[in-house]
Every structure is written in C-alpha cells, then in structure tokens.
Write a structure and sequence with these properties.
alpha/beta; eight-stranded mixed beta sheet; four-stranded parallel beta sheet
Length: 360
C-alpha cells in the first residue's frame, strides 16, 4: 500500500467522527495551546499485512509526522509539532530510553512556548514509562501518554482518536498539575494507578483498585478525582545529571519457588530486589533464607505482591522491621522497581526508602 493510500485508509473514519464536534471545540487560531508530540514507536505506529490484521503486525513502523497527518483535526485544537525520540516496540524499553525521554520532556516543558506534551508509546510497558515520568518530570504542565491496541492499518484503529483526545487533554487547563496522565479508550488514568489488564482489548488500561481519574467526552476532559501521591514538579527525584540507573530486578513468587533467579541477580550486582510475592507478599520457605541473606549483603529488598490489588502490609506476612525489608504499599512489582531504582539514586537507607513508598 502506498503512503497516500495508507493515510487515507486510517484517517477517513476517525476524521469523519471527529469533524463536527472538533469544529465547535476549537479556539481562535491565535490562542491554541502549543503541544509537542513525542513519538517512541509501539502498536500505535504499527502496520499489518492488511486491514484485518490485529495480531501478528509489526510495531514501530510509522513516523511521527504520518501519525499527526492521520489526525488532521488536532490542528483545530492545538498548534502541534512532532518529534521522533526513538522508534521501538515497547517490550524493548530500557532504562537508557527512559532517561533520554525524561530529559527531553523536561527540556521541552522548560520552554515557554510549549504548553503540554503528548507521548505516543507501545502499550506493553506504557504504565512503567508513565510512572517513571511521573516521578522525574519537573513541571506542572500536562504530560499525556497514549497508545493503541490495534495497528494503524487495522479496521477501526484506535490510535487516531486516542491521539486526538490526548492532544485535547494536554492542551487543557484541567490537566495541569495532575501528574502524568494516560488517555485511551475515552478514559483518563493516573500513571501511578493504571495497569494493562488485557492482552488485546482496547479497554485494556484500568486502575482496578483506585479507579480512573475521569473521561474524555465532547472534546473536553471531565475529572472526578485526583491522585493524592506526590509527583512531577513536587518530586525529589532528578535525572538531569544521571546517565545510568541502579540495577534492580523482580523475583516472581510461586509455589515450590527456588532462589536460583534471586541469587543470579545478586551475583550480577543488583542494588535492589523487588520480590513479587504471593498473597500479601508472603515469603515462601524456598526463598525466605536467600532474601534475608540478600539484605545482609546490602541489597535493598522490597516486598510487593503478584496479586495486583491491595496494600502490602508492613510487618504483615514478614517481620519487616527485623529483616530490614521495605514494603511496596499498593504499587505493583513493575512500578515498585521504578521507585526503588530512583530511590537508590538518593539513598540506601531503608527507612527513608520506605517513606518514599508511602509518599509516591
């Protein structure tokens, strides 16, 4: 398919659906917000063999300018610029990419002519990137992450309308000071709380425990709650001078667990371990002695849970005070890893780190 044919195929349906409503929302041309779209790849930039290919497609193929051109209605609600930061499928996300992205976001938001940022991203690790930025962005200006569950060439591709909503949200006063937001499926979720819950449905992103923040409806955000945890401009974490993050890995709990993976991570030189325990972060007999020994070697151990909901209670399923462990509060293991990495750039004191888990 030619690029012209590709753009026609993916723009006709969403543009027709958006056109009338968008025209009533648009402000005077001289008063539109200035939004920069940073593209990183993912399914939203993916292509399939044909219009019915929704699995087995190739991610990270379409560039940022083509993504913007596919949603011309965004130009009625914002002055939009695009920048390709990198182009990857998000399962290949790394700490180095996170640092690069955070530094670029902070540089752009420091400019007076940038009112907000939209970041297109693959869905597999979108929640992790969102939380990393939630802890490292140094501005109250809106930062909105967006992805898609269907490639750009698919029937009813969800990327174009998600991009449109993300631009509207990033340009709104209502989104200021709310931390990094995720705008997908007409819903607004907080970076700390959201997680991917389904392998293929467009409604995959949920905040199952604490709930979404609001909705995108009639070309405007409608917020119903805020996060109470510290983030963005109020965060103590600063990556501006960092070129590397401490090594932290996750050990998954299960029946008949053995310490082989944990011991390998410690031998590798990890500075922190997140144990994704069963239930309330329970320590199985096959792993507990090695976790205790890991802490004695100076590695910070955080007890989290594979359950995905609920508070991991300090001194609940383990005597954390005696063992000098940290608990993850309500953070899932993958987000606990991010907070621990950043915490270790500032301190190795477990009491201070525990307070961070109750703060962010």
């Amino acid at each position: 398919m030619s690029m012209k044919g590709f753009l026609t195929a993916i723009t006709i349906a969403p543009v027709f659906a958006l056109s009338l409503a968008a025209s009533s929302y648009a402000a005077e041309p001289g008063h539109l917000p200035n939004i920069t779209i940073l593209a990183t790849g993912g399914t939203i930039a993916g292509t399939g063999a044909n219009s019915t290919t929704t699995v087995g497609y190739t991610a990270a193929k379409v560039g940022v300018e083509a993504l913007i051109d596919a949603v011309p209605e965004v130009k009625k609600v914002a002055n939009v610029k695009g920048e390709q930061v990198f182009q990857i499928a998000s399962e290949s996300m790394t700490n180095d990419y996170w640092l690069k992205l955070a530094k670029r976001v902070n540089a752009l938001l420091a400019q007076p002519d940038v009112d907000g940022i939209v970041i297109t991203h693959g869905t597999d690790t979108l929640e992790e990137t969102a939380y990393f930025l939630d802890l490292t962005v140094k501005s109250d200006k809106p930062v909105v992450m967006v992805g898609a569950m269907r490639p750009s060439t698919a029937i009813s591709a969800d990327g174009p309308v998600n991009i449109y909503n993300a631009v509207v949200l990033a340009g709104s006063k209502e989104a200021e000071g709310k931390g990094v937001l995720i705008a997908m499926n007409d819903e607004i979720n907080a970076a700390r709380d959201v997680t991917k819950t389904n392998t293929s449905l467009t409604s995959t992103f949920r905040s199952p425990e604490l709930g979404l923040l609001g909705y995108m409806q009639a070309n405007a955000p409608h917020f119903y709650r805020d996060t109470t945890r510290r983030h963005t401009a109020a965060s103590e974490f600063d990556v501006s001078a960092l070129d590397k993050l401490p090594d932290v890995d996750i050990v998954y709990g299960y029946a008949n667990i053995n310490p082989v993976a944990l011991d390998a991570f410690v031998a590798h030189g990890d500075k922190g371990i997140v144990y994704a325990g069963v239930g309330d972060g329970s320590l199985g007999a096959g792993i507990k002695p090695s976790l205790i020994e890991t802490r004695k070697k100076g590695v910070v151990v955080v007890r989290s849970s594979r359950v995905g909901n609920g508070i991991v209670a300090r001194n609940g399923e383990a005597n954390d005070d005696e063992l000098d462990f940290v608990v993850s509060d309500t953070l899932n293991p993958q987000k606990a890893r991010i907070l621990l990495m950043l915490a270790l750039t500032r301190t190795s004191d477990t009491k201070t780190i525990q307070n961070m888990f109750y703060t962010y």
